[in-house]
Write a structure and sequence with these properties.
110 residues, mainly alpha, 5 helices, 69% helix
Length: 110
């Protein structure tokens, strides 16, 4: 049975799994087939990779308190209909994960 084609909305939802290399072979194939046929998602993936490269070196201490609060508010409210707002201590996990993305992605691309 052939899997259904991937929609752009689903692509955006699973791009992190793709970049981290945690996607099943079947899902990765669907993802890459969609990527090959969709210029919009190709551009989106490029933007995400550029963001990871740029932000990967930013630490929590690099942000002013207002910038940190704005960033946390943005992520807390992001897609709030599907996600439960994270408690403030989760910010530390968020920044740690964000900083480690470039290393994890580079290791998987080798």
């Amino acid at each position: 049975m052939t899997a259904a084609p991937l929609a752009c909305v689903e692509f955006v939802e699973i791009v992190t799994e793709y970049l981290e290399g945690t996607m099943s072979a079947k899902d990765r194939r669907r993802f890459e087939e969609h990527l090959a046929a969709c210029p919009g998602c190709t551009a989106y993936l490029k933007q995400i990779r550029e963001t990871i490269r740029a932000v990967g070196s930013v630490t929590e201490q690099d942000l002013s308190p207002p910038a940190r609060a704005a960033l946390l508010d943005a992520f807390r409210d992001w897609n709030s209909t599907e996600r439960v707002p994270a408690p403030l201590p989760a910010a530390h996990r968020f920044f740690a994960r964000l900083r480690s993305w470039p290393r994890r992605v580079r290791r998987r691309q080798r």
